[in-house]
Amino acid sequence: MPKKNSRSGGKFCGSHTTIIDAAEGLIDTANSQPEVYKISLGFIKAGLHSVNGNRRVKIIDVDGGVLVSVRGNTTHQEATIYTHNNQSTKLAIARAARNVGISISFGNLVS
Is the pTM of this model over 0.90? Predict the structure, then answer.
């Protein structure tokens, strides 16, 4: 039986398949977008200091897609969403975050 916070196959690539609770709905929203063709989940940083439930997401434009950096209460994870339409994908992720009460910010990748 697959783990609750695990995704693989389809648009998911790589060997890392676990998603933190705060990112789960956002990643599922990205996965449901027709313009998204690949999702690469990053490693989970756990055991961070508590932010008292103030979850947040930063959505960053990168070449070929969107980098989503999610901070849960004591965890952090990044995911790269490869898409044919960055703006539409960012909007869908931002709406999903807003609907579950996650603070949203947008940024640019610093080279």
Answer: no
